[in-house]
Automatic annotation (TrEMBL):
<dbReference type="InterPro" id="IPR006657">
    <property type="entry name" value="MoPterin_dinucl-bd_dom"/>
</dbReference>
<dbReference type="Pfam" id="PF01568">
    <property type="entry name" value="Molydop_binding"/>
</dbReference>
<keyword id="KW-0411">Iron-sulfur</keyword>
<dbReference type="Pfam" id="PF00384">
    <property type="entry name" value="Molybdopterin"/>
</dbReference>
<dbReference type="InterPro" id="IPR050123">
    <property type="entry name" value="Prok_molybdopt-oxidoreductase"/>
</dbReference>
<feature type="domain" description="Molybdopterin dinucleotide-binding">
    <location>
        <begin position="651"/>
        <end position="755"/>
    </location>
</feature>
<keyword id="KW-0479">Metal-binding</keyword>
<dbReference type="InterPro" id="IPR037951">
    <property type="entry name" value="MopB_CT_YdeP"/>
</dbReference>
<dbReference type="InterPro" id="IPR010046">
    <property type="entry name" value="Mopterin_OxRdtse_a_bac"/>
</dbReference>
<dbReference type="InterPro" id="IPR009010">
    <property type="entry name" value="Asp_de-COase-like_dom_sf"/>
</dbReference>
<keyword id="KW-0408">Iron</keyword>
<feature type="domain" description="Molybdopterin oxidoreductase">
    <location>
        <begin position="125"/>
        <end position="501"/>
    </location>
</feature>
<protein>
    <submittedName>
        <fullName>FdhF/YdeP family oxidoreductase</fullName>
    </submittedName>
</protein>
<dbReference type="InterPro" id="IPR006656">
    <property type="entry name" value="Mopterin_OxRdtase"/>
</dbReference>
């Protein structure tokens, strides 16, 4: 190892701390949810700060929840337009625990790396800019301007702008992301990997190819009036809890909900709406009318079966498919029908692991109704054939004409609260010619015309030492990305790593030769510039742009807003010699928005129109406008069945979230919906598989994966018997990212295969 590489642990201490198991829960939210929300809030923020901020979250003039991207209704509840996990996200960022110079002078990065991700996050908000110098193991304070100078000098020294990489996580505002993306381009690179490369990139690719826009088409009202909603590969009870209210509303209006998921996730089973008193007192409401427990990555077998059955019913009674829509708007109908003939019903059914009786019920609902919405998340996007999986579900919508009309359409449910907006305003590793043209015209510089690195390529470039400076606008790249060991080696090859962050995580400990930790505001904090209260904007999962105005006193006087940090970095780098007045942009966000309006398609008078409940960005699918696609038509696609070539002892592992985490930020050690308390190092297994592998409840195992002859290991997991299809396992990320090979990802989107990793289980004790 070279000298600057410090002795850092990638996992923290692996000891078990005393797991408690209960039965998985049948009902999501309810009083327990409210209690948990308040417990986290009061503990982290105190009562006054909690009440003040919770009441403003998602309200008209307040701030947007920092958790997920689920849209806020036009008439939000005055008492609680937030969920348990939104409250946890807020408590996590608005915590009154702080760390600065004193803390870092006492604790070295080597020592801190022995802590678990949970313990690291618990340390609190970073309250002053810090630097880790070459060969040193303690962060020390640095003045802001010295930090900008340090980055600027490193950037100036690079031989080629493509030796720098600018990563973005999806919590940044449109304003910050826009400045960041424009700075990267003005500097000369499109190396802009972002968290969406690991997330919904597969949805973006799948939808762009088939419908002409990489976003979903439905609005919130469409869910309320849908006749059938499919919730596929998604766990809304934990990850998008406010969505349960929308599903509940759909059911009240007579709609049916089908859940397609290897697990019967609690939120899909029953829900007690915290905004409804009779719900809270009663037993709540069943959400899924039908649950299809599909085997991991067998969605294509399932959708083919559904498509075949719909086509067969249509042959008898031509009302089942929307022939008028198909004739007018859709390409590839005859080819699809011919292709479906190649498949045998029983073979498909066996692969799915779902009973034909249940599949027939789903087919009947889809045959009899046409106002259909399909929602999905990571259960579809993180497989080798993720793009195809999504396109198969789009095939269903297209045959049913459930596209571009009220109460029907696509709903990829986004992750981070502004991941969709970040992409809209220019965070992308590929070249968008329209945007480049507008940059030349309105920002008066020439953006680079070669594509840059996405997440996978960024890791490889750092590993091969082609990249030397790595800047991160939020996130926890090391732990979020696949192949933790390989990614750590890659990051440690850099000369400089820069993290613009709110809280400490392992990406601040595994660093380049020099590392900067630049603390920034959270969403809930008040951002005043020259006596003016600033606001920011975000785009929800349904494409609505709304403003967000923080109200809490910032964690310290020494932290700065994201737009200001980026603007000052650009100002320092260009030394005032650039077509954009960077300094001014960092001082007045209206100015940033006026540039966004000029350069980004669909944005218009954003400073005005984002007020109140905001405005929708244009969406061609809503208008049934497919002119940008081949023949000007929506595309049906032919997709094949996956082949994992599993060895006899291999199982397919999906890496999922517990109820007590936001991605790599671990709020607590419980996953109460799944009955797990006080432990995260667990692996959920089918009882038959356990028997076959000679395993008992709570045995300690190591997990191994082998790809291209390379063995990877994640140590120390407790086996938990669970209702999961045979041949499948589940465990939490980020602990399991050690197993995901960096060079295995979805075709076309390069999203890591985090939901279908081939794994063997080794009993340790
Ligand atoms: N509280 C909280 N909220 C969050 C997050 C968080 O960590 N915590 N993360 C945010 C982010 S960035 C994102 S992207 C979203 C993630 O939201 P989700 O996608 O709901 O998150 P996961 O836990 O990855 O759950 C994936 C679901 O897919 C199922 N699944 C796995 N494989 C398959 C398959 O092959 N087929 C089918 N049909 N289903 C499958 C799993 O059983 C699981 O229910 O949530 C966002 N919101
Ligand atoms: N195995 C496996 N791996 C996965 C996934 C999976 O399902 N399985 N999911 C993938 C998905 S969907 C995603 S989106 C990625 C997530 O990848 P990332 O977005 O990179 O990770 P997060 O854990 O969301 O980032 C958390 C950190 O962001 C910083 N932060 C929080 N709020 C703010 C803010 O307002 N501003 C700034 N500047 N920083 C802030 C804090 O320092 C915090 O520690 O992980 C991916 N990785
Ligand atoms: Mo995500």
């Amino acid at each position: 190892m070279r000298k600057f590489k410090r002795n850092i642990s990638l996992t923290g201490d692996l000891k078990f701390i005393g797991i408690r198991l209960k039965e998985p829960m049948q009902t999501a939210a309810g009083l327990l949810g409210v209690k948990e929300a308040l417990r986290h809030s009061f503990k982290e923020m105190g009562i006054v700060r909690s009440m003040k901020s919770l009441l403003e979250m998602n309200q008209e003039d307040g701030f947007r929840c920092p958790s997920c991207a689920w849209p806020v209704p036009e008439h939000p509840s005055k008492i609680a337009e937030y969920c348990e996990n939104g409250a946890k996200a807020l408590a996590d960022e608005a915590t009154t625990q702080h760390i600065g110079e004193d803390f870092f002078s006492k604790h070295s990065v080597e020592e801190l790396s022995q802590l678990s991700d949970y313990e690291l996050n618990k340390l609190g908000r970073v309250i002053e800019p810090m630097v880790l110098r070459p060969g040193k193991v303690h962060y020390e304070p640095i003045a802001w301007q010295d930090a900008y100078d340090l980055i600027s000098n490193e950037l100036h020294q690079l031989k080629d702008p493509n030796e720098a990489i600018f990563y973005t996580s999806g919590r940044s505002s449109n304003e910050a992301a826009f400045l960041y993306g424009m700075f990267a381009r003005a500097f000369g690179t499109n190396n802009m990997p972002d968290c969406s490369n690991m997330c919904h990139e597969s949805s973006g690719v799948a939808l762009s190819e088939t419908l002409g826009i990489g976003k979903g088409s439905v609005k919130l009202d469409d869910l309320y009036g849908a006749e059938v909603i499919l919730v596929v590969g998604q766990n809304p009870g934990t990850n998008h809890p406010r969505m349960l209210s929308a599903l509940e509303k759909c059911k009240k209006n007579g709609g049916k909900i089908i859940s397609i998921n290897p697990l019967a996730e609690t939120g899909m089973v029953r829900f007690k709406n915290p905004q409804n008193v009779s719900d809270m007192l009663g037993s709540g409401r069943a959400i899924a009318d039908l649950h299809l427990p599909v085997r991991v990555n067998e969605d294509i077998a399932l959708t083919k079966l559904i498509l075949k059955k719909l086509v067969a019913l249509d042959a008898k009674n031509s009302n089942v498919l929307d022939h008028e829509f198909i004739v007018e708007y859709v390409d590839g109908y005859d080819e699809l029908l011919k292709d479906l003939e190649r498949y045998n019903l029983e073979t498909l059914q066996r692969r799915t692991g779902v009973s034909m009786r249940k599949i027939d019920k789903a087919v009947q609902l889809l045959a009899e109704n046409s106002k259909i919405v399909i929602c999905w998340a990571m259960g579809l996007t993180q497989h080798k054939n993720a793009v195809e999986c999504i396109q198969e579900y789009v095939n269903i919508l297209l045959l049913k004409g459930a596209i571009g009309k009220p109460f029907a359409g696509t709903c990829p449910v986004r992750g981070h609260s502004n991941v969709q907006g970040d992409r809209s305003v220019g965070i992308m590793h590929f070249v968008n010619k329209g945007l480049n043209h507008k940059i030349q015209k309105h920002l008066n510089f020439d953006p680079p015309t070669e594509p840059g690195y996405d997440t996978v390529e960024a890791i490889e470039a750092m590993h091969e030492k082609k990249a030397k400076v790595f800047v991160c606008l939020g996130g926890n790249f090391l732990m979020a990305a696949s192949d933790t060991q390989y990614t750590a080696e890659a990051i440690q090859n850099c000369d400089l790593t820069v993290q613009i962050s709110t809280k400490l995580n392992r990406s601040h400990l595994v660093t380049g030769k020099t590392a900067l930790l630049l603390p920034t505001f959270g969403r809930s904090e008040k951002d005043e510039k020259n006596g003016e209260l600033q606001f920011l904007t975000m785009e929800s999962s349904t494409g609505k742009v709304r403003q967000s105005k923080g109200l809490l006193q910032p964690a310290s006087e020494q932290i700065k807003s994201e737009p200001e940090i980026i603007a000052m970095l650009a100002h320092t780098y260009f030394r005032g010699n650039h077509s954009m007045n960077w300094y001014a942009l960092g001082q007045d966000y209206n100015l940033i928005r006026s540039y966004i309006d000029k350069t980004v398609k669909g944005f218009d008078k954003t400073s005005e129109r984002s007020k109140g409940f905001g405005y929708y960005l244009p969406n061609n699918v809503r208008e049934r406008d497919f002119r940008m696609l081949p023949n000007g038509r929506a595309q049906l696609t032919l997709n094949s069945l996956p082949d994992h070539n599993l060895k006899p002892d291999e199982l397919l592992l999906m890496t999922i979230r517990s109820h007590d985490q936001f991605n790599t930020t671990i709020y607590g050690l419980n996953d109460r919906y799944r009955g797990i308390h006080n432990e995260r190092r667990v692996v959920f297994m089918n009882k038959e598989d356990m028997l076959q592998h000679g395993l008992n409840k709570q045995d300690v195992v190591n997990l191994h994966s082998e790809y291209d002859g390379i063995q990877r290991t994640a140590e120390q997991f407790l086996v938990i018997p669970y209702d999961i299809p045979k041949g499948n396992m589940a465990a939490y990320f980020p602990e399991t990212n050690l197993l995901v090979p960096h060079n295995h990802f979805a075709d076309k989107s390069q999203t890591p295969i985090s939901k279908s990793i081939k794994v063997t289980v080794e009993k340790v004790s």
